[in-house]
Every structure is written in C-alpha cells, then in structure tokens.
TrEMBL record:
GO molecular function list: L-ornithine transmembrane transporter activity
Cellular compartments per GO CC: mitochondrial membrane
Keywords, sorted A to Z: Membrane, Mitochondrion, Repeat, Transmembrane, Transmembrane helix, Transport
Cell compartments where the protein resides: Mitochondrion membrane
Membrane topology: Multi-pass membrane protein
Family label: Belongs to the mitochondrial carrier (TC 2.A.29) family.
Name of the protein: Mitochondrial arginine transporter BAC1
Domain of life, source organism: Eukaryota
InterPro entries (alphabetical): MCP_dom_sf, MCP_transmembrane, Mitochondrial_Carrier
Length: 280
C-alpha cells in the first residue's frame, strides 16, 4: 500500500507544476517509477512513513477516545453525537499533525527530490536520517516543520470527517443487523469494521486531498522562501488546472484508503474488545 503513497506524491508534485501534466494517470506514474527507479523506488522513504504512521495511529485513536469520553461525561446515548465526535476528532487530528509533519516531509523529499536527476548530487539524500539532518542543518526547526499549518488543517478537518463517517456507518449498520438478526458474532463485527473503516478512509481523503496536494508542494519546494500558504497555492493550481488539479492523485489515494483504513478500524476494535473497554 505504501507504493500508492509514492505515486500520489509524485503526481501531486509533477502534475501541478507550471510545466504541465507529466503523468497521465496513477498507472502511468507507477510504470515510469518502475522504469526509472525499479521496485525499490516505489518504497523510497518508507521507513519514516511507517514509523510516523504507527505512532500517529495509536496516538490519534487514544486521544480521540479519551476526549470523546470526557465530553460525553460518562453518559453514552448510543446514537452518534456530532457535538462530541467532531471536536474530539479535530483536536486529536491537530495534535498528531505535529508528529506527522516531520515524517511526511522526509518521506516527500525522499520520493521527489532524492532521485531527481535535476537535483545536484550534493543535495540528494542517502536515506531518511540523512534527509532529516540535511533539512535541519540548512533550514533549522522551521524547516523540519515546513507545511505544519497545512498538515494541521488536513488532519483536524479530515479526522472530523473520518470519525463522523465511521461512528455513523458503524451505528446504523449495527442497528440494521440487530433488527435483522439477534445473532451478531465476531465475523459480523469484522464486516462492520471493514465497511465503516473503508468508507471513512474514502470520506477523509475526498474532503481534504487538496490540502494534501498543497502540503506536498510546500514540503518539496526547492526555494526556501516560497509561500507556505495552502490557499494561495490551491488558488494558483485551480487557475491552471481547475478542480481536477486540486485533486491530483485521487485515484491511487482512494485505492489505498479503503483497505488501509478498514484494517486500521478492525485492528482498533479488536484491541478495544481484548482490553475489555466498554463501548456503546
């Protein structure tokens, strides 16, 4: 699934450039990467991403659950409450953006600048650690957190959409299954987890992919003084390429979103059940 991230980032960087469309589709981009960089090229920058995602996911679900429980005051009505879910998810997303920003910056720079033949060899990266150190040395702490505001917007808005969709789909699916049959087993729970998680992942990226496009451009811009304003960047892309440009990389992102988030939700719900945490 990481290879789809690689394709997404390459498409976002190259297809929104002033020089025009470089990749016709996600499949075309994948073929070009395989041709020029080999299979290894599809997984360039994976280390930092895996570490960041693993820590971010556990942190996000933990923060969301705790804030949601506090806002509910111990009283669970059963039916999802937007007034509880949205702030819980938005706060959780905002917090984890500080973890995601540096790891995604390293990942994006490794994927876009690390192998670019137009970039001088002295500016290329030997690995994630080398990328992080060079960024810190040349740009300082602000360089490591370049694109932080855009990441915060993506994560706070995106997770509000994600958990609202998840809680609603989960609630209504269980309600329908309860009415249809009283025999709800572990297999049923897994099925609900797959559907609610997969649909939530699609909802997340459909809502905030333009911010992700802007973040990729901000984090991989060679000019240190280039704008970090995501709205200014998106306005420029929209002027050149329309709404389609703002959603560059949607195909490979959606392909990854359903299975990845379905697996995340099923794993989370299994962990909750094993730990004996009560849910409505």
């Amino acid at each position: 699934m990481f290879s789809s991230f690689k394709v997404k980032v390459k498409m976002q960087k190259q297809n929104t450039d002033v020089h025009g469309i470089k990749y016709r589709s996600g499949l075309h981009c994948t073929a070009r990467v395989l041709q020029t960089e080999g299979v290894k090229g599809l997984y360039r920058g994976a280390t930092s991403s895996f570490l960041g995602v693993a820590f971010e996911s556990s942190l996000l679900f933990g923060i969301y659950s705790q804030i949601k429980q506090s806002l509910e005051g111990g009283l669970q009505s059963g039916k999802p409450q937007s007034s509880v879910i949205i702030p819980s998810a938005a706060i959780g997303g905002g917090i984890i953006s500080f973890v995601l920003c540096p790891s995604e910056l390293v990942k994006c720079r490794m994927q876009v600048l690390g192998t670019d033949s137009l970039v001088p060899k002295s500016s290329r990266y030997n690995g994630p650690l080398d990328c992080a150190l060079k960024t810190f040395k040349t740009e300082g702490v602000t360089g490591i957190f370049r694109g932080g505001f855009t990441t915060l917007l993506r994560e706070s808005i995106g997770n509000a959409v994600f958990f609202s969709t998840y809680e609603s789909v989960r609630y209504y699916m269980h309600l329908q299954l309860k009415d249809a049959s009283s025999n709800q087993n572990n297999l049923t729970d897994v099925g609900v987890g797959i559907m609610s998680g997969g649909l939530s992942g699609i909802a997340f990226w459909s809502a905030v992919l333009p911010f992700d496009v802007a973040k990729t451009i901000i984090q991989t811009a060679p000019d240190r003084n280039s704008t970090r304003n995501p709205f200014q960047i998106l306005k420029s892309i929209y002027r050149r390429s329309g709404l389609k440009g703002c959603y560059t990389g949607l195909g490979p992102t959606i392909v990854r979103a359903f299975p990845a988030n379905a697996a995340a939700i099923v794993t989370w719900e299994l962990a909750v059940k094993i730990l004996g945490v009560k849910r409505e």
